[in-house]
């Protein structure tokens, strides 16, 4: 689980080197063709289509769906074939889906803000709800996600948030606010860590100051920078990957963490997670159907199958991610202390991080200014 | 006469072909790509939009980035100096060992390369961190714990550890091939040991010193893994900056601009080294 999450957020160097060549080879056609492509218009789909004549091709993060899924899908849906290709990061998936004409992908797993961007470029088939009866299994909250209200072009697969993960036995007071992390008290100095990926580096300060996590206002980002510069000398380190281990060893006592990464189920039972009172983010990984798909009926049937509680609960049970599927979560045995118990209503208080386009360079610069000091 | 020379040239081409192909495909083409990206604009999902701009260069000349270059130069120079101070005596001693021991010593120098780099860095973390081995050692004497990790000192230690062999080997090669009779002649003419070293040994091994220094300086200057792992992400070096532009900001054109600047700095250094080596 750690590995898949790691690659999800932090692309591999090799990937980018490869992409550089791929993109260069394919020329600049991708962005133009995407922008001029027609908006998604619902195609007439046949609910009784003969699926044996269709195949299913998906792209997904490694380890994010059960290994035996292709066999099960073939057996259950009677499709002729199912191919699974893997991507390490959202960026890699986007390249696969946007460069060149038909990607050959029917269903793609990407994060919410990327689904939104794909739809803005007219690359997604609207979801035909009548072909996915299992949509009824979703929490009502899961249809109210800000990047796609009403699940018009995406279906959520997993969701979660960011908060403070801490050692109950080593803190003198339980953290409740992002300020506990941003202005650590004397007993926590040099024992806190922050994430380095820009948007999450900025998140605690943005929320503490009452700003949106998606702000592109220079003066707000400047305020965030000020807070982070003050905080820096009191940090143990910036860390995206090993903060869980740092907590276990006691080197760190409070860390900024994604919920799925906070080791609350550790046998010592001395680690807890809190979403600070100022609020946090909500991230969602979704399933989308490509407009270019030639197997749209099969694609809908596939998503319907994934939403089956038997299948969807796998992610919660095996990779410790919450799934927005009420029927599936009710099946799951939530271990004591597990964060799988966070309620959907709580999650929905979080603000979705959306892609900021050109403005995202402001965050890069801010993060460079903080770390270069 | 002409035919034999022609055949000679053909033969040379056959032998050069693999090397040339390698350089063209894996060095020149990527370099050309990086260079061309510097003139284009950022694509929304990474990649580039092929619209001409010179804005990337304007952005690069910025006190923020110059400061990062300064930090990187400082760290790389310090690493190189310490590596030289440690590496020269080591190479000198190895060169004077009996043949059998020489081989063993040289193997010992390159031995660390047999283990994965990341694992070796994790080993340093375990050695240096708060409850780590070094601090436990200090504790026995009632000292510490000290802050040994996640600072610039830890970065220098990591770089030094990683690249010291690259200093020792060229130095060893230079010292080894030094004719012992030269030193004897110097002694016979009344020079003290130190004078012999200063006037004979050092000048003659200077090319080795320069090569070793380059071998240490160049990868230290561009490293981004060690600042992240041992520096705790609190120090930004040029390599981190470039890595972040490509992988986090998805700003390939600006990342390419910074990378081009880095290559330019290093090429200048290599030219300076070549010039100095020829004069030496």
From TrEMBL, chain B:
Keyword NAD: no
Protein name: ABC transporter permease
Domain of life: Bacteria
Transmembrane residue ranges: 12-40, 75-94, 106-128, 148-173, 204-226, 254-276
Protein family according to the UniProt entry: Belongs to the binding-protein-dependent transport system permease family. CysTW subfamily.
Membrane topology: Multi-pass membrane protein
Subcellular location: Cell membrane
Organism: Nonomuraea indica
Matches recorded under InterPro entries: MetI-like (IPR000515), MetI-like_sf (IPR035906)
Keywords on record: Cell membrane, Membrane, Transmembrane, Transmembrane helix, Transport
Residues in ABC transmembrane type-1 domain copies: 69-275
